[in-house]
Amino acid sequence: MGTEVLAVENVAFRYAGVPVLRDVNLRVEAASTVAVTGANGSGKSTLLHLLAGVEQPAEGSVRRRAGCRLALLPQRTGDIDALPLTVAECVRIGRFRPRRRLNRDDRAAVTVIMERLDLAHLARRRLRELSGGQRQRALIAQTLVQAADVYVLDEPTVALDATSRRHVHDLLAERVRAGAAVVFASHDAADATLADRTVRLTGALGHSVGDAAVHHGP
Ligand SMILES: Nc1ncnc2c1ncn2[C@@H]1O[C@H](COP(=O)(O)OP(=O)(O)OP(=O)(O)O)[C@@H](O)[C@H]1O
Ligand SMILES: [Mg+2]
Fold this sequence. Notes:
Elements: E1 4-15, E2 18-29, E3 33-37, H1 44-52, E4 59-64, E5 70-73, H2 87-92, H3 104-116, H4 132-144, E6 150-154, H5 162-177, E7 181-185, H6 189-192, E8 197-200, E9 208-211
Parallel strand pairs: 3-7, 3-8, 5-6, 6-7
Antiparallel strand pairs: 1-2, 1-4, 8-9
This protein binds adenosine-5'-triphosphate and magnesium ion.
């Protein structure tokens, strides 16, 4: 068993009293991938928000290893379009730290991730002037350029063509080989087979956790 970075125990969550998740248990280990699957409205995004600390559980606990650095790619990212950001600026944000300039390592990481996600030729374009898939690649780059222990991505490849999807899967696999944990939500049964473990959400009715090799599909 690997080092535990996130632990979800007996978690329940409600929006304004309406139950969304109940009895969710999950361990996320370093150097492993977890897929969160389930139908629309089953609570995938909600569970990812709980993992990232954006929401707090009504019952149970979500524990993060001390000092754990977490990078989140949310499903809804429309707010960022209000900012006049270029693609390069959007990606650099992933490396910002308070009261510190980007250093050589930061700039190198930005260059590499932009090349890997075929964004270099779009560097000066405004985010809101991109196609849906181009924009999604820029946001994935902003997430993956971060030096994190856990990458939490909500349906990262949904708008992407097959080539871009493969690039993202390769990058995620590299992060895992380097010791990070990856948690991603997906409807796609094929995506879930890339994971070491899947959590299948079924609304507030109860959930199953298993091995990706055993549990396919949403
Ligand atoms: N801010 C909110 N306020 C009230 N209810 C919400 C809110 N966000 C989500 N819900 C409800 O919680 C349930 C779970 O939503 P969630 O977004 O977690 O599902 P999901 O599995 O990510 O769905 P999708 O596949 O469509 O992304 C849904 O019934 C949804 O209507
Ligand atoms: Mg969702």
